[in-house]
Amino acid sequence: MMELKSFKKLFQMTKVINSQFELSEILQVFVDAIASEITQADLVGFFLEQPDGTFKGYKGNKLPVDITELLIDPSKDPFVRDILQRRASDYIADTNVDTRLDAEKKNLLKIKSILGIPVIVNDQIFGLVFVHDFGKPMNLTLEQIEVTEAFVNMASVAIRNIQMFEHSQQLLEKQQLLLDATNAMSKTLSVRDVLETSFHFLQRASGAEDIGIHLYNENERTLEPFHLSSINLREEDWKQKHRDEIKLKIDDDRLLYEVITEKKAVAVPDVYADPRPNHAALAKFDIQSMMVIPLVAKSSVFGIIVIPSMHKRAVYEEGKIEFCKSFADVTATALSNAMHTENLDHSVNERSMELQQANFKLEGLVKELEYLNELKNDFIATLSHELRTPITAVKGSVDILRKEVIGELNQPQKDLLDTAVKSIERLLNQVNELLDFAKMETGKFELSYTEVDFKDLITEAEHIVHSLINKKKLELTVEVDPSSETVLKVDRERILQILLNLLSNSIKFTPQKGNIIIKAHSTDKELTIEVCDNGIGIPVEKQKHIFTKFYQVNNQINGTGLGLAISKQLIEMHGGRIWFESGEGQGSTFKFTLPKGGSV
Length: 600
Fold this sequence. Notes:
Elements: H1 4-19, H2 23-39, E1 43-49, E2 55-60, E3 71-72, H3 78-86, E4 90-92, H4 103-109, E5 114-121, E6 124-132, H5 142-186, H6 191-206, E7 211-217, E8 222-229, H7 235-244, E9 248-249, H8 254-262, E10 266-268, H9 279-283, E11 287-297, E12 300-310, H10 318-350, H11 355-383, H12 388-402, H13 411-441, E13 450-453, H14 454-464, H15 466-471, E14 475-480, E15 487-490, H16 492-509, E16 515-522, E17 526-533, H17 540-543, H18 563-573, E18 578-583, E19 587-595
Parallel strand pairs: 14-16
Antiparallel strand pairs: 1-2, 1-6, 2-3, 4-5, 5-6, 7-8, 7-12, 8-9, 10-11, 11-12, 13-15, 16-17, 17-19, 18-19
Helix pairs in contact: 1-2, 2-5, 5-6, 5-10, 5-11, 6-10, 10-11, 12-13, 14-16, 16-18
């Protein structure tokens, strides 16, 4: 049996891993802990899967061996192939008897016995962990192997959390970049300003060095070079080559025909392996890959944006294509308006006889631009670099449509708006949870204490969830011990947030016509609150993760997986504690305590 001291150290390691958001730091703690606290092995190595299917050394415990110089090829190592095929750990107690291990690695590292464990994240092989000594067998016990496997599983959860956090951060950064582009475009009135602004943001969005815009001549069905931003080619040379050697007719280029007629963005990783593009034209600039996005304004295509990769091939992810298309849509509107304005100015100067009519059109257009610009500026100003405000604004706009203030709606439109409202509310809740989580992680979260009667909080929570209770025909009962003191000094909004979170979970997981009970009773030192239901309950194997950040008992239920984790932190910040009792198919009871007289 492992000593209690070792288990305490492992517990500390677990806390460290779950508090980190750097993969390198987590894996270093991980391999050191396995080496020193579990197996006492000479070498514990973490190997990351590479795009070609091999595994390259990434982190190892601190020994003379440089783990990053090691590469494992499953095609040459039956031991590794077995682990990957079975997606389970494997242990060779004696490499002289079990000869599956790659002989080269065996001799290089003097491996007498070895434990290999796959690291599975989101049901995909993320990497491999190998444990062994130099020149002597390890003689690992079954308990040591099982503890090591448990630690690997825990590291997998931490890696998954990192990936989710990084994904969220990337989404936030993309949203901010798009909002910045919208704001900048709303302030541009000339074609030149629009183009410079557009290229600036498109280069940031795509990571490309070269971006060109062609205008579409609908009558002649041709595309003419308009403007280029490139560090590889001068714009004048680009235009000259098109004038002398290249005639872009959409009827001669199936790719351009598809983009123009279907108004859709197309990315081609290998232009010469794709029969649609005009290969002769592409060869003039040594283009190997490209993304082509239509410029659509007022339902018409007036041009295209081409983002080529010269001299080398590019990889296009679906998310990046859609992201670039968003910038193209903003560019199309701004460029169309700017070109239209400049054309009107030119017409006014050339046709004095039509001055009155031209001025009228121009005045109308300027007013329209000023109005649109005012709306955009108001939107950006109220955003204040936060996420909650724009989501709330969108919700308000949808509510106005639902109330038919500006026009009567048909039933399908009402249904769509109802769906939108639910999605916005869910998104707003998720954003609030993410922001609370971020504040807590950085230690910037503060409580605001006031004196509150908990019976009033229960009544308010009942009122908020009333419609959800009625929709599922549930019975909600409140049982407050009449002798209990229910007046506490707490952060009122946060305790209400906790109570609503527990009630919402009970409502989600309780079937039609079920029962939910809220109980409250106190001792001299604390008030205890219980939220009970007769719902589906929590499976035993998932109960230990219930307060883990980003963990969801049922992945089919939308959410961030942060509700219970945040509730636990809020309760502990108040000096209380939270726990639960549950049986699968027998319902769940969540309990939490709050100290009397404020936090302790």
